[in-house]
Description:
This protein is of the alpha+beta class. 31% of the residues lie in helices and 28% in strands. A six-stranded mixed beta sheet has the order 2-3-1-4-5-6, with helices on both faces. A six-stranded antiparallel beta barrel has the order 7-8-14-11-10-15.
Amino acid sequence: MFVVATAGHVDHGKSTLVRALTGMEPDRWAEERRRGMTIDLGFAWTTLPSGGTVAFVDVPGHERFVPNMLAGVGPVPAALIVVAADEGWMPQSAEHLAALDALGVAYGLLAVTRADLADPGPATARARAEIAETSLGAVPAVAVSGLTGAGLPELRAALDRLAAQLPAPVVDDPVRLWVDRSFTVRGSGTVVTGTLGAGRLRVGDELELAGADEPVRVRGLHSLGEARPEAAAVARVAVNLRGTPRDRLGRGDALLTPGRFHHTDLVDVRLAGDPAADLPATLTLHVGSAAVPVRVRPLGPDTVRLRLARPLPLLVGDRALLRDPGRHHISGGVRVLDVAPPPLARRGAAAARAQVLAELDGRPDLAGELRRRRLIRAGALIRMGVPVHAEPVAGDWLSDPAHWRRLGERLTEEVARHAREHPLEPGMPVDALRQRLALPDRVLVEALVRPPLRIHAGRVGAASANALPEPVALAVQRVRAEYGDRPFRAPEADRLVDLGLGPREIGAAVRAGALLRLADNVVLLPDALDDAVRVLAGLPQPFTLSAARQALDTTRRVAVPLLELLDRRGATRRLPDDARIVVT
Ligand SMILES: Nc1nc2c(ncn2[C@@H]2O[C@H](COP(=O)(O)OP(=O)(O)OP(=O)(O)O)[C@@H](O)[C@H]2O)c(=O)[nH]1
Ligand SMILES: [Mg+2]
């Protein structure tokens, strides 16, 4: 299927032509038929000579209904421009063409209608000249009469040729279905319609709806008036939503593939063409079927920041249009450059931003995004419309390579500084490093640690962090010298103080395996454990605490915790009568 929107001045015969081509009535409302004028969008379709289907979105020509017209053409990439032979080029012909141009519509066809009333030549020439100046370029023209049917076969053939030119839709892309109508069907509930420009919808799909906490579920699908299990782009679709109240959504909302779109109320954009220097401070942004008031903040010669009155699911590269509703004036097209731009808080930030934007063209650019954002989750980039084809540095984080290298260097410096300032600590805690480097996630710190640094027990230090700080090493050496031949005599508390072994120093020595801590202020040399087991194994089994104390030539202060430690390690076992045996 291909979808084409009509465009043209009021009463030039758009709806008559659609009716003649399709046999369907595009003017759905009684009021439209009474007044002989289209007010809102109409939908009709027919089969072309090739066997393909064309669906029309018929728009109103009256200047009062331009917002409706824009909701119709916004999601549709091809236009059928209608000009009446007897009236020629008129103001809404020009405004509609300006809208198509602003949106960058590149595929179109000119139908000069009411050719039974006047020579179509002059209107054709003028319209083609006007169209040639826009994104549509040179378009084929067909003279027709909706009344007599003259020219309709030629128009059908031209539509077929246009359909063949259109780029193939990307059916693997995520869905962003801009809603152009919503209504209630008795017994089915809420139904929305729209033009599916990319992707695929299936009954049962879960979709995201901006502002809704829960996903919405597709209960039924219709296309071209028939129920279908699935619809692939390009298609006109009607989607029946399960459990979504009718007042929850309407024109301008979008149904989205979950997790694939960034809802933003702040975008930096490039203005197309020759931007007016006196762009008003408030305008309406039209994109898809949405129309949202925006505040305009000029940045560069052709770049501005837009603050949207409500967030929209926008992607880098999106085309949109700015209109001044008060003056009935299309101010121009915009191309979205950044959907998550940085705040402009500091002095000079706007000028710096203008320079950055001058380099952007709206084409998603992964390397550029990484350079500007330094560190970002893959999912966040994908939601901006930037395809991710780079390896994450950790988890789902991506980083600019130069920034990542600098972070690695800073990590090394911080760890070295911490070691200087806290010589007794076995490295810098990972979380302290995370804060110091202002990193949003621990996994980033972990990924930045490279040999000779390593992570041990939640700290980052040199792989040789077990080496003792010098003063502690000296103190341990003296313990060894003094107690080496009395391995089960622990230095008294005041001796430990003399040796410079406070609780922190003892902690460092214990972590390094240079001392064995039995209790507060009770330490032995580490080989004491094996020696003790050997001595105790030589006693008649079972043995008492007192026998152990004597055999080990030590005091209760050491013997009690030493035996308890041996019990815990399974080297000795305590019996019900408090005697022990060595476990062999
Ligand atoms: N003689 C003649 N009259 C036509 C032809 N096409 C449309 N008309 C008449 O022109 C008037 C307007 O036609 P519509 O089809 O409603 O025009 P429209 O462009 O859809 O108008 P809006 O939707 O209000 O913008 C009607 O009275 C039609 O009967 C044609 O080819 N020949
Ligand atoms: Mg009409």
